[in-house]
Every structure is written in C-alpha cells, then in structure tokens.
Amino acid sequence: MNFYTIAADFKAETINEYARLNSEYENAKVLETYGQMTVGNTMAGGRVHADIPKIDFYDLKHYIAYSLSRDIGFNYSLNGSCMSNKEFTKEGLDELKIFLKKLKSIGVKGVTVALPSIIEVISSLQLGFEIKLSIISQVNTVNKAIDYKKIGVTRIVTDESINRDFNKLRNISRAFGDKIEIIVNSMCHKDCVYRAFHYNQTSHDSVNCSEAGINTYYNHRCMTKKAESPEEWLKLCWVRPEDIPFYNEVGIHYFKLQGRHTVHGGNPVKAIESYFKQSFSGDLVDLFELFNCPYSFKVCLDNRKLDGFIDKYYEAGDFCINNCQQCGYCNGYAKKIINIDEANEMNEMAKEFYAEFDQFSQMLRHCLPE
C-alpha cells in the first residue's frame, strides 16, 4: 500500500473526491491533507502566508471535522525553520502549548515540524500527535534520521536532494523504519545554495510578509537558475508517477505532493490520481504544479519521452556524482527530448525579465551610499 499526503485546498468537494479514489484503488490511499491557518496565525510555517489559502481557526475546525468523517486525516504545518526564538521565552512557550492543545481539540492527527526545540515541546505535552519531520530539516543520512527518531519523530520527509540516490534511501528506510516519505513533485534545485536561507525567509513571511524585494529574492534566483540551460529542468528532484515502484523496492511507501501555493486553483484530484495509476501523459511541469502552473517561462517536459530516464539512477544506486560538468547525463537526455532552440529562446526571455524586474537588484542599483 502506498500512502499519499497532499496540500489541502480546504474544499469539501475535494475531500469527497479523495474518498472516492480511496474506495476505488486497493493499493493507494490519500492518508491526509496538510496546511495551516493564515488568518490570525502567529506560528511560523513553511510557506509565505500571502501565497496560500486564507483560513482561520473556524474554517480549519470545520474542514478537519469533514475530512475525518470521510476517513482522511489532517496534518498541521508547524514547520518554520525559525520561530524568532519565541519558543525559548515563557510567554512564547505558553502560547505554543495552548495552540497545540487547540489543534488536538479539533482533530489534528499529526504535526509537521522542522525545529528540534518544537519537537521537544510537542513530545512533552503527550497529546498523541504523530510528529512528522519536515523536508526543511534536510535529513539525508542514516545518522540524522536516527537522531531525530530518538527525540520523538515517527515519520520523516527526507531531503529532496537524495530523491534519486536509491542507496541512501534504502539505508535510511532500513535503519529508521517504514515511515520514510519523499516529495514527488519538488521543483527545487538539487544542492541549491539558497535553500536554507530561503526557508528562513519563508518562515518569517509565513506570519508577516516582508517587503516585496525580500519576498521575491529567492524565487527570482530559482527561476534564473532554471533558465541557465534546458537540462536544468531534468536535474530537479521530481519523481514521475511511473517511477513509484522503484521507491517501493527500496522501502518507500509514503509520498507527498506539495503545492499549497497552487492547490486552490489547480486540480489536485487529477494530480493524485495520476500517482495512484502510476501513469501520466502530458507535460510533467503541469502535473507537478497541480495543473495550476505559476511559471511564465517554462520548458515542456513530455512525460512519455522520459520513460527510462530514472533507470540508471536505480540500477547504479548512487549514479549521480553531483558533478554535472563531469557527468553530462541530463544534458544528453535533454537534447533527445526537448526542442533545444525553443527552450533556449524561452530561457533568454526569462533571464531578461528577471534581470529587469528583480526588485532586490533594483534596490541595489538605487540605494546608493551617501
């Protein structure tokens, strides 16, 4: 059995569709949706609050009640990489404990957390939450996984950078247990130099949004990186629906579809059913963005042309040497499946756009020292 977690759009009709899929498919199940309050929220999470559905505590309570009536749980995202140190003050700690008890009272089954200090707070309350470790904690070794298990974590979302390192995934699963989860539709760059710092910016902006120049800084650099070469889209850490059996073979049966920023206007049911079927025809980027793609400039990835792409990673276990200049596998594959001339033209437009309209760069040009 494969278990799926997907971003909540907070719609009853979507929960009905997930329940339908759960009844129709024997070997796959939507285990839970996940998300957080945005209205009246004071607890840092992993998404900028301006980009996700507007939900207050009343909305959350009723959504969870309906979800549970259809046998679908809810996992609360409390996964900020920084809480502004509020958890180390008496006032902040009291506020956090009261909030966790309120979450328990409305039926929250699990909490996704990034900070070890918050894990200790949750464990100390003994409220019966399943503590899931966020991808933000960047677990990529057995040692990290075991250390988090010792302080109370029962499920881990591993670092997306090891999504194609089957040896590492196998070893972590064997050591930690079967509750290892991977994000299948990650559009993050592997080994991104901005990642940890982007997480911190997002944590602060999940409560109070910063100036636009800060809010777009990391997103613009992410898109500029994608525009360097068509092959960059193949290097991202995604997992195709057809590739799920490879992960089952190394002990992975928990899968997460991210997309709190795209789910509300997208088609999460179509996306999740593609993974249930382990088959999809169309543009992978659209699938990964839950059919609500936010990119003005993107390369089309025809999924059918990617049949066999993952084979070398699985067969060798540690096929990727993290040295793209020396390897060239993704570059060669891109030339076979992508219209390179069209992709390069699109990339040039993207680089021009982000160079001209990047707000942080504008601030640098105009904020001159006196």
Q: What is the string of SSEs from the N terminus onward?
A: EHEHEHEHEHEHEHHHHHEHHHHHHH
* Backbone CA Rg: 20 Å
Strand order of the largest sheet: 1-2-3-4-5-6-7-8
Alpha plus pi helix count: 18
- Global shape: globular
Q: Structural class of the helices, strands and pairings?
A: alpha/beta
Beta strand count: 8
What integer is the average pLDDT? 89
Which runs of at least 5 residues are low in confidence (pLDDT < 50)?
Answer: none
Strand portion, in percent?
5-15%
* Sheet of most strands: 8 strands, parallel, barrel
Percentage of residues in helical conformation: 40-55%
Q: Layout of SSEs?
A:
Layout: E1 2-7, H1 12-24, E2 28-35, H2 57-69, E3 73-78, H3 90-105, E4 110-113, H4 116-125, E5 130-133, H5 142-150, E6 155-157, H6 166-176, E7 180-183, H7 195-205, H8 212-215, H9 217-226, H10 232-235, H11 244-249, E8 254-257, H12 268-277, H13 284-288, H14 311-316, H15 324-327, H16 329-337, H17 340-357, H18 359-366
Parallel strand pairs: 1-2, 1-8, 2-3, 3-4, 4-5, 5-6, 6-7, 7-8
Provide a descriptive summary of the structure in words.
This protein has helices at 12-24, 57-69, 90-105, 116-125, 142-150, 166-176, 195-205, 212-215, 217-226, 232-235, 244-249, 268-277, 284-288, 311-316, 324-327, 329-337, 340-357, 359-366, and strands at 2-7, 28-35, 73-78, 110-113, 130-133, 155-157, 180-183, 254-257. By secondary structure, the chain is α/β, with parallel strands linked by helices. The protein has an 8-stranded parallel β-barrel, surrounded by 6 helices. Helix 1 (12-24) links the parallel strand 1 and strand 2. The model has no long low-confidence stretch (mean pLDDT 89).
